[in-house]
Give the backbone structure.
Amino acid sequence: MAPALRLLLVVVIAGGAAFGLTRYFSAPPPTSINEVEWLTQEFNLDAEQSEQIAALHTAYQPICADHCTAILSAQDRIEEADNESARAAAEAALDQLEQTCHKSTQAHLRAVAAVMDPAQGKRYLALISPRLSDHEHAEPFGLK
């Protein structure tokens, strides 16, 4: 057997072995967890609390999505404004929409916290509320 062919055979076998070992010893991919599962684990919720919070989230998702859609539309209107007056009006509308969204989401977060044990609810609000100010409205507010 020619030395080059022998070398190629060794490289192919070593590569196959490396691939197989990597697949065998690699950690399983992380499982995705939804918000209610995370809340249940993180804040020691019982089944009833988890169900109540799931219902709150389900009810609030379309409201949050509507807020995001309106805010993104207002941002587009600012970019499309062709004069200072139109731009100022669009910016004022955006400000109002963001305030409405913020107040609505804060009320939702307080409703979720109210389902929890008071100490856990306080911890939840301390953890989640600061994220609200950084939310970009590209998708509904949550853990993402």
DSSP finds five helices and no strands in the chain. The mean pLDDT is 83. The CA atoms of residues 75 and 94 lie 7 Å apart. The domain at 35-132 is CATH 1.20.120.1490 (Four Helix Bundle (Hemerythrin (Met), subunit A)).
